[in-house]
Amino acid sequence: MPGKRARRHFSQLSEFERGLIIEMKTAGWSTRRVAGQVDRSECAVRNCWEQWTRGGTHARKTGSGATRKTTRRGDRRNVWQAFVDLTVTRSTIRADVGVAIVPQTISRHIAEANLKSKCTFRALPLTPEHRQLRLQWCQARSMWNVTDWQKIVFSDESRFVLGTDDNRVWVWRGPV
Fold first, then answer.
1. InterPro entries from the xrefs (predicted)?
2. Using CA of residue 82, residue 83, residue 84, residue 86, what is the dihedral sign?
């Protein structure tokens, strides 16, 4: 699959791959040949080799990546908020944190807890009484002809939203 190859090109090199690249480059292989052998981009191979020649190490730098804005305890508290109050929003949780974090971080933590954002019920389930009334309505009109049915207007209750907000209430739900 071409998508898998492209994603692999942008993932971090493992320690084994870094050592393999150093060995192949030390043996005199070209950057292009090494990149094809380890299935990585030439840029990744070149960066690994330059780090080895400059610093004498192939290990990743410590502390690379974004710094954490919240603690693990704070993350658990945010997930707990979603468990306790199913209608809590990401922006509400973000305001309670007190630190500038992006909403995607909150969603990721909640998704790791196996909760998903879902729309609330559109309608209540039908009771046996409702089903009986619907059946009676249909039976009373079973002998109608086309001209009788042309006088009735049906609606499929589709929603058309011209703006960005459809005013639906989203809730956090666990696996069913």
1. Homeodomain-like_sf (IPR009057), RNaseH_sf (IPR036397)
2. positive
